[in-house]
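User: Hi! I have a protein structure encoded as tokens and I'd like to know what sequence might fold into it. I'm fairly new to this, so please keep things simple.
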């Protein structure tokens, strides 16, 4: 737990203020790189993002619609959380 607490304390220094929900932070912390990728892209897919990679189009389909992937502030905070953990674990993006 000390390591986890250290990570959470570093988050504001990294510009990540989205750790207000410890349960979500804990869930992302325990995900694999593939699960983090899916969680991040699922947020964009719900917002109609036009995916360009073959992998994303196979998983989420070729659909695009308004608001074309524009995220709400809450969604952006979740994406930022996920990106933090992807970088922490060295996941390829």
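Assistant: Happy to help. Inverse folding works backwards from shape to sequence: for each of the 93 positions I chose a residue that suits the local structure. Here it is:
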């Amino acid at each position: 737990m000390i390591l986890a607490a250290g990570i959470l304390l570093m988050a504001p220094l990294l510009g990540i203020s989205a750790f207000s929900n410890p349960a979500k932070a804990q869930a992302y912390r325990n995900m694999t790189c593939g699960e983090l990728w899916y969680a991040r892209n699922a947020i964009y897919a719900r917002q109609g993002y036009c995916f360009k990679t073959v992998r994303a189009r196979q998983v989420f389909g070729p659909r695009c619609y308004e608001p074309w992937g524009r995220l709400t502030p809450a969604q952006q905070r979740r994406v930022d959380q996920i990106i933090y953990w992807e970088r922490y674990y060295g996941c390829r993006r």
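A useful reference point when you look it over: The two ends are 27 Å apart (CA to CA). Feel free to ask if any position seems puzzling.
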